[in-house]
Amino acid sequence: MKKNSVIDQILPSKRCIGCGLCSTVCKTQCLTMELNRYGELNPVWKNQQTCTNCGLCLKVCPGEMMNDADNPLFHAKSLPAFIEENQSATVFAAHSKNPEHRMNGASGGFTSDFLSYLLGKGLVDFCIVIIRDPEDPLKCKAVPAFTPEEVLSARGSKYAPVHYQDVIPMLESAVEKGQKAALVGLPCHLAGIAAYTKIRPAVRKSIFCSVALVCGHIPVLRAYDYILQKIHMNRYELKNIRNRGGGWPGFLSIENRQGRTWKHPYGGNLSWGRLFSSPFCTVQGCFHCTDPAGFHADISVSDAWIPPYFPGKNNPGENLVWIQNAALIPVIRQMQKEQILHLEEASFQDFIR
Predict the structure, then answer these.
(1) Which residue of 212, 226, 251, 252 has the lowest C-beta tally within 10 Å?
(2) Cα angle at 107 between 151 and 277, to 5 degrees?
(3) What is the pTM of this model?
């Protein structure tokens, strides 16, 4: 191993969130992504001798961007001051007016309907969404969606490490073909893509918009091993996992290959209520995060965990949507006119809290 290699800063790092962008930009293919014994994705040496210390891996690493100059919260004097500075920000409480979309989305169905609308109107050629890997449902990966139906098939939260490294080749392909893409991801994923667009400005022109899903943290895969043990299900029998859906806040659903489904409430002990929210089941890099809201995105979307929207029998799902790119407001308003979305004005303070 070369001494003082820049990659030595990543391999032992506690800031890695397992996106895999470092392995994608490595020109000499030094790195690959592997799961460690805790169920975290980490970069490991594929070929130590070919590293040229170019530093591209660090330039796109979200973990190395925690003090990024583009992060406004990092430069704010205090959280109240930050909220005061952004009082004029455009924020909506929103939900899909399609009852099925609203019921089976993570919360209000805004993201799926928005991406589907972009495709339907020809504003983008494809959307980059996150799905559970059909070959191994414990893993998640980014894939292109070319139809509204494909977008809807990817709806719902994915509480697991995500293989996001394929996004860069997709965007590079879009540049070559003169296509436009919309992408959805966690704030850390989009921070890494934003860093890459500084290296490759042409890629930024291929991104019509990006949607950040406000994040608490990423659970490690060993949490699912614990659940499978508790419900007496063999990992190799696993067919599908859904973390949300079926109302708000919904249910964790695990289906085996025999068609039997186990369901557990979102707030229960074997879901986010205790297991997924535990620091013992959290990816290490998440403890260093300073961007849970998605400051590098054009739109940030969260659950509306506040009165008067908080889950109840009369509300099957509600999103809070922060529009950071004003050019997208006419699109959102047009969706309202076409009776696709229900919108209400909300405040930036509502969104932050």
Answers:
(1) 226
(2) 110
(3) 0.92
- The per-residue pLDDT for range 300-313, each reduced to its tens digit, is 999 999 888 886 66
Asked if 329 contacts 219 with a C-beta cutoff of 8 angstroms, the reply is: no
Q: Dihedral, CA atoms, 321, 327, 331, 337, nearest 10 degrees?
A: 90
For 235-275, what is each residue's pLDDT tens digit? 889 999 999 988 899 999 999 999 999 999 999 999 999 99
In angstroms, rounded to a whole number, what is the distance separating the alpha carbons of residues 108 and 95? 4
pLDDT digits (tens, 9 = 90+) for 128-163: 999 999 999 998 999 999 999 999 999 999 999 998
The answer, yes or no, to whether the previous bond of 308 is cis (omega within 30 of 0) is yes
pLDDT above 60 for 5: no
Give the separation between CA 327 and CA 164, rounded to whole angstroms: 27
Contact 329, 340 (CB under 8 A): no
pLDDT greater than 70 at residue 84? yes
What does the alpha-carbon distance between residue 137 and residue 129 come to, in Å, rounded to a whole number? 15
Q: What is the rounded (10 degree) CA torsion for 100, 104, 108, 114?
A: -80
